[in-house]
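Same chain as my last thread, 231 residues:
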Amino acid sequence: MPTDLVLRPATPIDAHDVASVHLRARRAAPMPPAVHPDDDVRRWLAVRLQSDEVWVAEHDGVVVGYARLTDTWLDDLYVEPSHARQGVGSALIDVATSVRPDGFCLWVFESNAPARAFYARHGLVELERTDGSANEERAPDIKMAWTGADPLAFLRGLIDEVDAQLGDLLARRAALTRAVQPLKADPTQRDLAREHQIAEALAARAPALGAERIERIVHTIITESLDAART
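reply #2:
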C-alpha cells in the first residue's frame, strides 16, 4: 500500500468523485460499453452511497479509487486509470476482506482479463460462468469469491442457497407435471423424445455435468414427478 494513500468510509459528499472514478475506470477497462447514461450512473451511485458500505482511497486529498460492498457482495472496485498498478486496488481489496471476514462474492466480465488476474492474485476463486443473458450488457461474466476465514463454511452457505432454489424449482416442476397429466391422450406413456430434448437443453446450461449425467438427472426428476402426480 502506498504510504501516502488514505482509506476511509465514503460520505455523501464523495458522490461526485466516486462516480467520476467509476465512469473513467469503466471506460478504460476491457469491458462491454455501459448501458446507462453518465447522469443516471451518477444519480444511482449517489443513492447507493447512502445504503451500501463504500470505502474511498485518497491520494493528496483526491479520490483515486473506491470499493462498494453489501452484506455478501463486493459490487464495485474501481481505480482511477492514472493511478492503476500503484497499489490502490490492492489496498481496497484488503479493506474489503477485513470488513467482510466471512467472505463475499463478486461478478467480473469474462473479457476483463486484468481484473480477473488481479482478483486471483488476491486469493479469490472462480465459482461459475454465465453466457451473460442475465446481465444488462448481455456479456459473459464470471462469479468469483473470497471465501473468508472459514472457506468450507462459506462455500457450504452458497450450496445451501442453491439447494433452496432447487427445492423451489422441483416443487414447481412436480406441480406442472401433475397439471399436464389430464391433458395427455395417454398419461401412462412418456414422451422420450421430449425428455431427451429437455436433457440436451439443460446440458447446454450445465456443461460441467455433461450430457449423460444430465440425462440421468432429468429421467429421475420426471419419473419421481410422475409418481407423485399419480398419488
